[in-house]
Sequence to fold (819 residues):
Amino acid sequence: MSLPAPLIEMRGITKTFGAVKANEAVDLSVAPGEILGLLGENGAGKTTLMNVLFGAYAPDAGEILIQGQKVRITSSADALAAGIGMVHQHFHLAPRLTVLENLLIGIRGKGGRIDRAGGLARLAEISRQYGLALDPDLPVSALSVGEQQRLEIIKALFRGARLLILDEPTAVLAPSEVEGLFSALRSMAAQGLGIIFISHKLNEVRALTHRCTVLRHGRVAGRVDDPANTTSAAMAELMCGHEIVPPARGPSTPGEAVLTLDGISTSKHSGTTLRDVSLAVRAGEILGIAGVSGNGQQALAEVISGVRAPDAGQMTIAGQKVSRFSPREVQALGLGRIPEDRMTTGLVTNLPLADSMVLPRVGTAAFSSRGLLKPDAIRAFAEEQIKAYDIRCPGPMVRAGALSGGNLQKALLARELAFDPKVLIVSQPTRGLDIGAARFIHEKFLAMRAKGCGIIVIGEDLEELLVLCDRIAVMYEGRIAGTLSSADATVARLGLLMTGAEGHG
Amino acid sequence: MSAVFEQIFQVGFLAAIIRIATPLAFATLGEMFSERAGVLNLGIEGIMLLSAMTGFTATSLSGSLWLGVLAAVLTGMLMGALHALFTVALGLSQHVCGIGVTLFSSGLAYFLYRLIFGQQSVPPSIKGFQTLPIPVLSDIPVLGPAIFNQFTLVYMAILAIPLAAFVLYRTPWGLSVRMVGENPRAADSAGVSVIATRFQVVILGGALMGLAGAFLSMAQFNAFTFGVVSGRGWVAIALVVFGRWDPWRSAGAALLFAFVDALQLRMQASGLGHIPYEAFLMLPFIFTIVAMAFMSRNAVAPSALLKPFRREER
Fold:
């Protein structure tokens, strides 16, 4: 099979940030009609490389060729002019403007006015060509996440992109939406566009891409010419440089219920409402909460952690009824919590790590007396945990925000587990962590389960939930759409529940 | 009581509302533009004062009203550029810089005024704008004398409202302004310069604030006094919220405020009971606070308001 001339070629790209080599002599090429997978752990340099290609960073060395011609890309405007479009992980859309307005931004008008007719015609043409339809006059805020992503893709095509970069596009989608995205991408490739698909979900990369480039520590660790017929294990090994064995989850012997929710409902203050949610977690059991983001998971986490009081329903922790729904109360009853967003609700990034590690219990006798802190005790506690959890940091007094995601997550885990919670609630426990750190977190969960702790894992990564959980409940529009035991749960069945298809429960 | 009402609602009442609303409309539109792109301009109060001073001075020295208006507009643009330099180019706190611009502009206005005119027992005045009746239209009963027998600057304010809406909603530049105020990163990745757009819009806003100042010293009072603005700039900031960052609604808010202000002036004049006049003076401001409390609950500010933009920030 003869390969067509590359649409785009990056040669010897090197980019350093201070002492860190984010990219070192990276080569990469995409041919027209080709879907290239770009694989790598967090911090492997995928995003940096793509930002170089999209003009956000200037490379220290190396060159970029488009259809054999050397080009200089120093801004996103240059990249767009060169036919490179990028769909970022966090969408670059203005929610209160309409679909059409988001498409027309930066595009010259006609006679000083916005060229609405021209825009509509172009949108219709793209819709027809690739099967991507959207209502031009809807505000973006009325679109689902999947539709917003579609708009980002249309936006790139609208500007004449011939190469499309997608940064972890499936992270925000339900399984059914993923299939829709993939078929659109395949149709674009069939019509001669080049696509770079960034992901660390190996099964998706194997299903979609024609070829893969794997990055590790900023360098090309290897290339895979036939992803469909390469095992995930082999690709994972390329990504992390060593073999990865999933943690073994032994049989569990769940005991008494340690957390029960009975008919919990919330009014619509912010986000999704909870509607009559009942569930129970037993000692020594891991319960997964699956669902497309925004279906009430956050409200559920807030109610259980005592941040938000429900309007109706009851909750018990270790047999005791929760009456006031304050974080302090649920914590006193034995609940540990690892919030979804480490940086904003997990800890205080500008304070020393040690302070963040005692934050939820700073008022207890262990860390203060008569209204005064015990700095030595706080420091000693932090030092102990840093050692026990192998948290890589210069010391307990370092600014918390300076730690990497994996180390922060370990710190948060250490903070909760040090007090032997009866129930632990965690949201997205390994999001943004590399395989090694995720593995460590999983092992800790399984160890807690063996000790009789009840654990709730709220997550969007179904593969992760399937590995960890004894049971998985699926949330859809604020309700529990159904609960599957680990024996019955498959990605396909969960996916159906996630879209409300099997709306009983 | 009916006598009091008659005294209040005369033909002149409508004209007074329009007149009072004019500087507020200019100022509110100026602030609205600036905020739509994500830049709060608390310099507005001082910019209006300094523009009122330079406009008055230029007219007083040259004898030309339009030269005065030009001076006021240029002053507004210059101070807008100063605010943009701090908040857009350097990314400093919009609150702090805005208050700084107000303090600096006010101080400069007092200083220059003293320097040029010295201390006089009778403050100097100019022959300000005269009303310019528009033929035919000004003969319409009630509305004619109220709307079409006004200062040229009033007509300009009335025209500025649809013009602002057109620019904001129908032109590519207006779309850039809105996008920059909602999601600057999106604008940037679409090849729109966030910094340039914000600079342009803050300077445009300054020009409108300059017109507001010019109206006060050159049409309404025909003199410059230290209290010539007396909080109208701050009111405009509230009116922008009240008007939900929309040109039509903002202008409507200015009109509503002007109505209450005109009303209290009449009530003062009518000598209603034995109420001290200061109580009437408070009315428009109480109205603003109450209106804000009720109306601004659902108001959603531009998402990127107060947020400086830096490209390589991760």
Remarks:
- Chain B has 13 helices and two strands.
- The beta strands of chain B are 132-133, 149-150.
